[in-house]
Every structure is written in C-alpha cells, then in structure tokens.
Write the structure tokens for this entry.
Amino acid sequence: MMTAVALSTALRLAAGGLPVLPLSIDKRPFGNCPECADNACGGRPNMKTPGPCLCPRPCHGWAAATLDPDVLSSGPWAAAWRRAGAVAYHPGGAGVTVVDLDNADAVEWARATLPATTTVATTRGEHWIYRGTIRSVNAVRDGVDIKSLMSYARWLGGGTGTMAELPDVVRALAEEKPSAVRLAPRAVTVPAPAGGGECCHRTPAYLERGIAMAEQQITAADSAIHNTVYRTFLAVLSRHGRCGCLTEAHIARLFTAAQAKGESPRHCTDAWTNATTTLGL
C-alpha cells in the first residue's frame, strides 16, 4: 500500500470514529522503540493494560491506535506511514468485535451458526463484524479468532451487510475455559540461527533464564496471544540468536508454550520466520 493511500485511509477512518494504526510490511504493528524497551517509558509495551504510553511513536501495538489526525500525520507517525504495509484498527476501541474466519470450513460454520452481519472478505476467509465488545481470544474453534478488546484487525474495507449485535454464541466462545479450545501441541522443527556473533552468555544459566522467562511470558498472556508470541520470539532472537547458543531444543520449548495457548504450528512457524527476517538472522 502506497504511503499516501495508507495515510489517507487512516485519516478517513479516524474521522469516522475508528482508532487506527500503521502496520509494517509483514502486516504486524511496529515494534517498540528503544526508549520503550523493557517498559522503560512507563507505558504499556506488553499491551496488557489499556491505553497508550507517553511515547509519541506508534510502537505499542493495538494501544497505539488513535483518532487524532495530528498524531497520525506528523512527527514519528509520518515516518511510520512511509514504511507501512497496511492500515489496522482497534475493534474494541470502536465498540465492535471481529470474528476472524481463517479458512473455508470456518466460514461455513459461521454461515450455519452466526446471525448475519457486516462481512469483509480476507485473503483466506472472512471477517464478521458485530456491535459490542468482549475479550480477544485466539483459536476458539479451528480457524476462528475473536478480535475485540486489546487487539487489532487489518482494515480490508467496509464490507457488506448490516452490522448486528454481538450474539451470545460468540460471547460464549470467548468465555470458555482456555483448555476447552486450545490445540494439542505438535512438534515443529525450525533451524536454530547459525550464530557467528559475539556471545554475551557468561554462564549457561543466562540462556536458560531467558528461555524460561519467555515461556512464562507466553503462558501468562490472556489476550493478543499471536502478538505476544511474535514479540517474545523477537525478544529471544534479538538477545540470544546471533551467537549460536540457541538450539532447536530451546525453540521447541517456545513453540510448545505458544501452542498450549492456542497458536497453531503454522502460526508459530510464521512468527519465528518473521522475527528472524526482521532481525536479519
């Protein structure tokens, strides 16, 4: 998407009450800036608490979404739009919920189960949009994610149909115990980084502590799981991926933690690949 088109779309959506943010070329929010690393800004880089921090950069995922045209079109945001690949919005901030149907079977289930509403075609399925907000949950069914509070959705157009109220069946899916909807972990193998950089691990315990903390961060996430997994993979690779100490056994532990939270093997592999590409590994 060309910069002028992306920014023009964002300003139009913001004027209509839709909080928007830029997505990078890989269709993900821009990563935290150095000033906000490890929550140094006192803001919300882990995206668990609603609202933006004081940092002017669009670096806090869904919490960066804004309606302010001056923020969107000036300063660091203008630079972000020059590198943007798409426009996203915060459904919860607009008072809506997106049922993200990721394959043909999921679309068929929705047509047989859910009340008609505004629908938007995606590359693999459809977005069904309802009035009302709930917590965001991934993998409530095979190929079905719920995006609302503390989440973001890619803007793919206004869609067709009249928007309906959020149905009880969707609320029930979001409220189910995670164990009822999680996928069973499956072994996935990706190559460990080749290394070659300077090793900063004074003892093996340093790497072990890093992997354990990453597992804990993924396990503790209660929303925006896919974003948490990607950010955690990115953090692990940025700290441990250049010296050759990171092994496939370490990676398998991270993938297992992600799948236990509902991530599919494909999404795990995609997140890892995107993280390695972002860091140039």
